[in-house]
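Handout, page 2. Input:
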Amino acid sequence: MFAARLVTAAVLLAVFSGALLLLPNEYWGAVLLAGLVIASLEWAALAGYRHAGRWLFGAVVFVSGLALLLGFRRTAGAVEASAQLHLFVYWISAAFWLLLAPAWLCGKWRIRNPVVMGVAGWIVLVPAWLALTALQTGPGRLLMLLGVVWIADSAAYVFGRRFGRHRLAPRISPGKTWEGVIGACIAVAVYYAFVWFIFAAQQAPTWPGGMILFAAVTVMSVQGDLFESWIKRQAGVKDSGTLFPGHGGMLDRIDGLTASMPLAALWLHYLDSPGLI
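Output:
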């Protein structure tokens, strides 16, 4: 299992990073759109939709994503409207993850209403895809932010398996521990120090803005992971799918990104400075 997980992770990282750095922005968005549709079908299954309902939800996500993607075209008169629409989508996501999702998790809500689950699924998936697409215009910065999520996830896994004693949320995800969270925070702090040192002579992330951003992305990635775990527990499954050997489905791979990337996009829009790569 661990070998399959490691090989899959290496292949995914190589393909994903290569596409991020080499593809033009609209092609990058189109590639991610395919992944978004796969994730939407997995979400629909977890929500309890029947076959036709799953494809309908996938179609809604695809069409809305395509409409937002076409908004990236720099046509006269459309730039400002497109930018405002994207910000509105990010704010919807931020409100969900900062207000509703914590209440959902704390209350252990078991929601089966198809409309509510559909709206929640759209908010979970589409803003994250939009943020990943928009932030790719600065590929180095996006890769740096993705590194926060990947390092936090890997460190939480390693520290949790080695030192885990105190469960973080046993009714939501029994395998996650406070020791894993602490390990993730330590690893991200080391990563931030490394990034700051490497880019000190160029454009280092400002202090404390850069560290706050890294910390926020870390915390939100944990929340995204927990939220997807709760949705899977409600559905009575271990993984969202079987797309990636050793890793589960598409949702299992992007759960930390769903909560963290829209917030990062908002942060960089309002508080960006030359000191943030």
